[in-house]
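Our consortium's second objective concerns turning raw sequence data into structural hypotheses that experimental partners can test. To show how far this objective has progressed, the report includes one record in full. It was chosen at random from the queue rather than selected for favorable results. The single chain below, 177 residues long, was entered without modification.
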Amino acid sequence: MSYSCSSSVRTLKAEPFYLTHAGDDGHLACGRKSVHGFVREGIAIVKEQQMLYILLNAFSEPNLSLVTVYMQLPFLEEVKILKGLYLVPDYNQNPIARRIVFVKLSDTYDASEFAALNARLIPHEEFTDTEKAIFDYTCELTDSLKMCTLPSPKLDLRDLQAEKTLLRKEAELESSL
């Protein structure tokens, strides 16, 4: 199960992922069930036994909105939690990077068990102690990096400051919700 901050409301988003061997070429098959109820599949690659990269499309084809998840792999054999970064386009196709946490639910992949898992937004009042700790790690205002596209006839330093001002105001608005 993955946990990250929702882009639509300030709450914890829980989405099931699966990772399973795809063949002899060193990559894994992966899939994610989104909070919108869609399953998107992609590939995962382990690099130097320290990094896991997951690539999949956020939306149905032909729209290509690449989701990239980078997970740090600890030097342990029995791992229950992974942490990393989740890069995804927002609703305007601007990139957002957020913290993400994976919590291992099973050692094996079973398609019917995966289908039965629910993706959902978890409101604050329903947090378990574990979910509260994950929310505090993934959903603070400093835990997402955003860019936005501002129409500008020329890109100069004033445009960079305007983007930061706009994003700061958005963060202040989110914190007041």
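The partners drew two points from this record. The chain has a mean pLDDT of 85. The radius of gyration is 17 Å. Both points have been shared with the crystallography group to help prioritize constructs.
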